[in-house]
Amino acid sequence: MARRIVLSSDRDEPSGSTEDLTIEYAEALNEQQYAAATAGKGPLLIVAGAGTGKTRTLIYRLAYLVETGTRPQQIVLLTFTRRAANDMTARASNLLDGRCEKVRGGTFHAFCLEVLRQHAEALGFPRNFTVLDAADAADVLSVIRTRGEYGDGEERFPQKNTLYSMFSSATNRDETLGETITKRYPQFTSLHAELKALRDAYRRYKKEHGLMDFDDLLERTLELLETDDDVRHQVASRCRHVLVDEYQDTNALQAELVKKFSSVHGNVTVVGDDAQSIYKFRGADFRNIFRFPDEFDDTEVVKLEHNYRSTQPILDLANRVIEQAERSYDKTLFTEKTEGELPALVPAADGDMEARFVAEMVLRLREDGVPLSDVAVLFRSSHNAYDLEVELNQRNIPFVKYGGMKLNEAAHIKDVLAHLKVVENPQDAASWNRALQLIHGIGPKTAQSLIEWTTEAAEDPLTLGDGAPFSDRYAARLKQLFSTLRHVRSDDTSVTEQVEAILDYYQPLFENKYADDHPKRAPDLEHLAGLAANHESRQRFLSSLTLDPIELTALDQETGEDDEPPLVLSTIHSAKGLEFHTVFLIRALDGTIPSRHALREPGGVDEELRLFYVAVTRAEEGLFISYPMTQYRRGQGEYMTTPSRFVEDLPDDVLEPVQLVEEDAVDENAPDAPEGGDTLPSSRNGEAPAPPESTRDDGPPDDPADADGLPF
Ligand SMILES: Nc1ncnc2c1ncn2[C@@H]1O[C@H](COP(=O)(O)OP(=O)(O)OP(=O)(O)O)[C@@H](O)[C@H]1O
């Protein structure tokens, strides 16, 4: 063991003095927020309803801890996205001073990565291991499956993405593979032994090739802290205060990690809202928040119920919605904004009419002075917004859509990153595979023999020696590839230069592979080079892209800086934590929200209910919940839909029914002219809606996994 020099921890002991505080905490916060922000040592659970200022409370707590003498480097702030941590530390710095920027903040995965980069060798991994995102991991599984000839029997073997989800689900839920298969994939029960063997092979492969997937980051860190008490002590000593945001969305592994991180000092603050737990499909367990007081002795519990965001009518609806959940902390949101419009329930004849209604209302709001960017249209899954996108484009209403594809999920970006990854970790066979097969003339077989040669036979994996098994057909390009990779590896090239060098090499391959649409894809490549500039090393650049993916649409948005800030279209998952003057929740159908898939899962409906709750609590002043009464499905034609069960039993004085009327259909002299309806200018192809008729289920099939490609 290396020689040790032990540093004294005396000067780390915070003074705890409150004498010279510069911030007026009691003035800026309400009584409960104040109690939470200024709480002393030990475990603290803040149960915070939507819009009750949990973010604000955490920011003040950060400032308070720093102001009362805790060194910022010894505060760990774990959040759901890196952006959330950066925003919070920046706001705390504004309140206090630059010391708050030094707080160690980020996601669980990023924090674990930091720990593993220092200690991976203790687990038999190199420190420069590569992090696989979900798609990379599925590709690796596919390679192993093909090589090992799994699933050659009579029965259908799961696809690579299913395999990854299955293994990941077991890990995140802390279940055995057998339990996961029985509960969630019963159709594969008979393949249990083969699946288990495949999972073992996947684990071995990752270790041999220096690869870790997202789950490994958590699982391996926990393994390290459980098995090596010395490392646990080192890591936990530097966590004098652990603060966890969105605790309701932690999974079993994360809850265990929190215990380990806080195992030396015992100071842990978790903030969460059980009613907003919406990541069950990734293993999140909202019960963690109920268990917290049992897991940590002498927990102080503070509840935040004063909502500062929404009007009382919107909160009344939110309270009524969440009452339907099976289990929740007893908290009732209230506000001082007692006046306001009732939330509206708006049936439309079909998807087209629903889209026209939203577009029309957005323009009316804009005329009334509500900026487009202060209005959001929320939906369960990205495809729910297609009709609306067409409508908005036709009317030239600018919008940005969140919850779609991430930059590093796009094929052309993956191509470029594969080159950077092989330089970083020449054992990364999946990335070699991708990079090699871009070259005309190299197929899977040739790629395989070249990979074996580079990873096993060659002295330097980035140098093509004489014995290399390549043919003249692609020799020139292959040599160019290797010389590019060696250039990228050299010490004196910045990350931007590395990306530029790969782009120069990649350009002709890119134009060839994406012959149909490469001009449309090209700006993403430029953007990638720009992003690289912010990173001091290739390794950090790759990790940050993997752990904190950037939305492709966010890139589009940056190009038109002078334009009016756009309307926000977002999946509900991606709207978490945001607030808007007016919210439209579209496609509120049974089968869409709750999704069909959720109806089959134990606890699935409650999860969807919480999702619905997250959507309605984003609204400050206006809330419209709409749905099409008919939909079209290929092969089936037009059919009647059923509104979401979550709105079905709500009384009119909580959710006001609104009738949409086509302008053409209004005959003001007619004795039965509709009263109080909102008219739409003449329909392009529709008739006035028929009255709703209920037949259960009918939204499009839905998969929670496509609800959002969320960053960890
Ligand atoms: N004590 C307060 N006085 C005035 N405004 C406040 C106070 N606390 C919070 N707010 C305001 O209330 C709004 C909601 O706060 P915040 O975003 O922190 O809530 P949240 O609990 O994180 O919400 P959610 O969980 O629903 O995303 C913000 O606009 C915030 O500025």
Automatic annotation (TrEMBL):
It holds the Pfam family UvrD-helicase. GO terms for biological process: recombinational repair. Residues 312-577 form the UvrD-like helicase C-terminal domain. Residues 661-670 have a biased composition (Acidic residues). InterPro entries: DExx_box_DNA_helicase_dom_sf, DNA_helicase_UvrD-like_C, DNA_helicase_UvrD/REP, P-loop_NTPase, UvrD-like_ATP-bd. Residues 661-712 are annotated as: Disordered. It comes from the Bacteria. Keywords: ATP-binding, Helicase, Hydrolase, Isomerase, Nucleotide-binding. GO terms for cellular component: cytosol. It catalyses: Couples ATP hydrolysis with the unwinding of duplex DNA by translocating in the 3'-5' direction; ATP + H2O = ADP + phosphate + H(+). It is an enzyme of class 5 (isomerase). Its EC number is 5.6.2.4. GO terms for molecular function: 3'-5' DNA helicase activity; ATP binding; DNA binding; hydrolase activity. Residues 27-311 form the UvrD-like helicase ATP-binding domain. ATP binds at A48, G49, A50, G51, T52, G53, K54, T55. CDD domains: DEXQc_UvrD. Belongs to the helicase family. UvrD subfamily. This is DNA 3'-5' helicase. It comes from Salinibacter ruber.
